[in-house]
Specification:
The complex is a heterodimer of chains A (about 350) and B (about 350). Chain A is mostly helical and about 350 residues long. In chain A, about 75% of the residues lie in helices and about 0% in strands. Chain A contains 15 helices and no strands. In chain A, helix 4 crosses helix 13. The radius of gyration of chain A is 20 Å and the shape is globular. With about 350 residues, chain B is mainly α. Chain B contains 14 helices and no strands. In chain B, helix 4 packs across helix 12 and helix 6 packs across helix 11. The longest helix of chain B is centred in the N-terminal third of the chain and has 35 residues. The mean pLDDT of chain B is about 80. The chains are: A mainly alpha (about 350), B mainly alpha (about 350). Chains A and B meet through helix 7 and helix 15 of A and helix 6, helix 7 and helix 14 of B.
């Protein structure tokens, strides 16, 4: 609270502006939510959607809305938020503008863990829904540790470029291992894994919302609470130590949170890349680099992005679908290239 | 002005002092490699669902008898397959060697720089819009696609503020590959050709027919001869742009011709085997380690060793999990990734 008093006048304006932007983003999500509920193989007009939401729809409309579309929309938003916050944290702690759980190979690690489980315990796929995020978290964590230690050089520590290159290579290795594993799968499981790998919101079921929710609900507020620490870390190690932040410890805790968010998100959405990259970048252009605003804005842009991608994917070639991951890659890769071309070493 | 003779002695001195070349080792590698390649080809032909003795392989090749089933299998299924594997490996390896020499980028490889993804994307487009296109034309679209991929990667790389660093190219390559991969996947889903494509790529070299080899070989042989002719200039270029210009090389046209050869080689290889990466990364490095830095030796040795690597990978792919075939690309990535990590750690001081 005291902080607001020290701020010069111009920053008060910026603050109001940021609140307005976050408000607009939230409105956009609501709007997209409604559009997405209308979209699909069976069309529901906005009026029908509203009527059904308040319990006056036909049985068929209720089934479509409550059992298929609503959980899927909720999951898209949660996954987008989780990945974007994860990317935002990774960019903050590594001071690397291109960091993203997908590019760094963390998503691949989570994917491999889930796939290993499916290929060795094929009969139990239906039961352990709550187990999937934990499994994915473990895989993501192991991948993160491997990448971190491979990129670490004595006397030099971690350089952003080496971290990215190591991530790219580890991701390539893990995908290769996954391809080998897919051959061991039965046809039904293979179908499941193939769609999952392409980054499709497959868990369109309230059970998956429940499995994902605790991770999001606990970790996102935790990261929000660390916004100041992220601001300080962003200044660079020397300044950070000077300001009294125990950087290594904070960095590890935040890294674990980022890994947890990415792992849980990937466990229900598969290989959606680039969200953790684009979400925070768009947010930064809108509200600036201070994490108090950046984190909520990133969460909203991430959620919006995945929701839009999933809706487009469902709408473009009915009755079949394009996985959201493909749509996001088509938007995300050019954006990554644009960022790369503007980046200084 | 120096006379040609002087230039060539200058060149010898330069190559000897800065980058040693080991002709004796190179000859040993070349002939040893050829022998190993022949052995591997023989083994690969004899190994499979129907067990065939090496002696039968010999008679099938040199005293072909159409009435013997084993001879039929060898002639119609196994020989095109193994020859395809050898060709594909040689293509990827020489393409990688040329790229590394031309760009002086130790991480250059057709898979890492977006060529493979581009060629694969073009094939997906062909399958979608021009179904039943004969292989003769398919291969040319594949060249075009390879050009598209590398064009985007270099375009982005050269637009960058810090210029074309190896790291930047690899990152741009990863993003372009992700984009083109997603687009191919989207096209495959939209036109419901996923299965055809998956069969085409993941089948590895198993689907290779004589007709593919026939159409491919003139292009490949032409490109390989071009690479060998160009090899002396590439050695000079790999010493540095100024050195090459100082020695009277037309670096622009060398680069242009070199890249054309790379496009043909990578495009042809992808059109047979799909987007297999890392062959072009591993083989030239291994060859350089063995024979030194003279591309007049590196290129022929890469042809042999690249062929050997993919023939062995194909053999392993069939042995690991029979009756299934493990994708060759995955197998080679399992060797390639640690190798790439090692190179990235060293920061590319070699070359």
């Amino acid at each position: 609270m005291k902080e607001t008093q020290i701020l010069p006048k111009g920053q008060h304006k910026a603050k109001t502006r940021n609140f307005v932007i976050i408000g607009i983003l939230s409105l956009l999500i609501v709007l997209m939510f409604i559009i997405s509920m209308n979209t699909g193989y069976i069309k529901l007009s906005p009026l029908e959607v509203i009527r059904t939401l308040f319990g006056y729809g036909t049985d068929k409309q209720e089934l479509i809305l409550f059992e298929f579309r609503l959980p899927r929309i909720v999951i898209s938003i949660l996954v987008g938020m989780g990945l974007a916050i994860s990317g935002c944290v990774l960019q903050g702690i590594s001071r690397n503008a291109l960091a993203d759980p997908g590019i760094l190979g963390i998503n691949a690690g989570a994917g491999l863990a889930v796939m290993l489980f499916i290929s060795f315990f094929p009969s139990t796929t239906a039961t352990p829904v709550f187990f999937l995020p934990i499994l994915a978290f473990t895989g993501a964590g192991v991948a993160a540790i491997i990448i971190y230690s491979l990129a670490y050089k004595r006397h030099e520590g971690i350089t952003p470029m080496r971290l990215l290159l190591t991530g790219v290579a580890v991701a390539a290795g893990i995908s290769a291992a996954m391809i080998v594993l897919t051959l061991r799968l039965s046809p039904e499981n293979y179908q499941f894994v193939a769609t999952w790998l392409a980054g499709s919101i497959w868990g369109s079921n309230w059970k998956f919302v429940l499995a994902l929710l605790p991770w999001i609900v606990i970790l996102i507020p935790f990261v929000f609470a660390k916004a100041r620490v992220l601001n300080v870390l962003n200044l660079g190690d020397l300044t950070a130590t000077g300001l009294g932040a125990s950087i290594e410890k904070e960095r590890r805790v935040l890294l674990a949170a980022a890994v947890g968010l990415a792992g849980a998100s990937v466990s229900v959405s598969g290989g959606i890349g680039f969200v953790g990259l684009i979400g925070p970048h768009l947010a930064r252009q809108l509200v600036g680099a201070r994490h108090q605003f950046l984190l909520p804005a990133a969460a909203l842009t991430g959620g919006l992005l995945v929701l839009i991608a999933d809706t487009i994917g469902r709408w473009i070639l009915q009755p079949s679908e394009i996985p959201a991951g493909i749509v996001v890659a088509v938007i995300g890769a050019p954006y990554f290239l644009y960022l790369l071309s503007r980046l200084k070493d | 002005m120096s006379t040609p003779v002087e230039v060539s002695t200058e060149l010898e001195e330069l190559t000897n002092s800065k980058k040693h070349s080991r002709p004796v080792v190179a000859v040993v590698v070349l002939f040893g490699g050829m022998f190993a390649l022949l052995m591997a080809i023989g083994l690969s032909i004899s190994f499979g669902a129907a067990d065939i003795k090496l002696a039968t392989v010999w008679t099938a090749v040199f005293q072909f008898n159409p009435d013997v089933t084993a001879h039929q299998i060898i002639r119609e299924i196994r020989m095109p397959r193994v020859l395809g594997a050898a060709m594909v490996g040689a293509c990827f390896a020489v393409a990688g060697a040329l790229m590394q020499g031309l760009t002086r980028n130790p991480l250059a490889d057709s898979g890492l720089l977006g060529l493979n993804a581009g060629a694969a994307f073009m094939l997906a487009i062909c399958f979608a819009f021009l179904p039943g296109l004969p292989y003769m034309y398919l291969i040319m679209y594949s060249f075009l696609g390879a050009g598209l991929g590398v064009g985007i990667v270099y375009g982005v790389g050269s637009m960058s503020r810090g210029g074309l660093t190896p790291m930047r190219l690899v990152l741009a390559g990863a993003a372009v590959s992700a984009l083109l991969g997603a687009l191919s996947e989207g096209v495959a889903l939209y036109f419901r050709i996923g299965q055809d494509l998956a069969f085409w790529y993941a089948g590895g070299v198993s689907g290779t027919k004589w007709i593919h080899l026939q159409i491919m070989s003139p292009w490949i042989i032409g490109a390989m001869i071009g690479a060998v002719i160009l090899s002396r200039s590439i050695t000079l270029l790999s010493l540095g742009e100024e050195v090459a210009i100082g020695l009277g090389q037309r670096t622009k046209s060398i680069k242009l011709i070199g890249m054309l050869i790379v496009l043909i080689l990578a495009g042809a290889a992808v059109s047979v085997v799909g987007a297999v990466g890392f062959v072009g990364l591993i083989v030239p490095h291994l060859t350089r380690f063995l024979v030194g830095h003279d591309y007049r030796w590196i290129i022929p040795c890469s042809i042999v060793l690249g062929g050997l690597l993919v023939v062995l990978a194909d053999l392993a792919a069939r042995m690991i999990n029979p009756p299934f075939e493990t994708p060759i690309g995955a197998l080679i990535a399992l060797i390639g990734v640690p190798f790439f990590l090692y190179l990235a750690r060293k920061g590319g001081k070699e070359l």
